[in-house]
Amino acid sequence: MYSSARGQAFRSQYLSTALENGAVAYLCDVEHADELESTAPGVPAIVSLDLRPAMAYAAAEAFGRPDHDIEVIGITGTKGKSTVAYMLRAILDGEEPYEHTGILGSIETFDGIERGESHNTTPEAPDLWRHLANARDSGLGYMTMEVASQGPEVRPRARA
Prior knowledge:
Elements: E1 2-3, H1 13-20, E2 26-29, H2 30-39, E3 45-48, H3 51-62, E4 71-75, H4 81-93, E5 101-104, E6 108-110, E7 115-117, H5 125-137, E8 142-146, H6 151-154
Parallel strand pairs: 1-2, 2-3, 4-8, 5-8
Antiparallel strand pairs: 5-6, 6-7
Helix pairs in contact: 3-5
């Protein structure tokens, strides 16, 4: 499923490319629904009044709700999130670094499959669910993650 971007990054031709690459449906906001329908008539669409939480729900299901299979530990606050996340990971991993616990934060992303420098404290919903699925699929039992304090104010949290 393709999810249309919001703001200046929106281009209807992205849907055409996604369909050529195997997408079978799309998710979009009301503002772009007519334009995308004309770009891809007859393609199943989910049209949402609020795209961000809709993407979160769709991504959770698309990745098979990995939060049901691993323990997710979120750390929030003004200061110390990274320190606490790394301390918890060290405790949970014991003498086997990178064997039991993934980490998502402002410094590093490690999910058992992907490992690299982080770009956001809290990733967008599709990326978050992908990382959780990677952790599950690679056999990690835990994911420690920094959660931006303003997240609940800026965007609603998806709950299921």
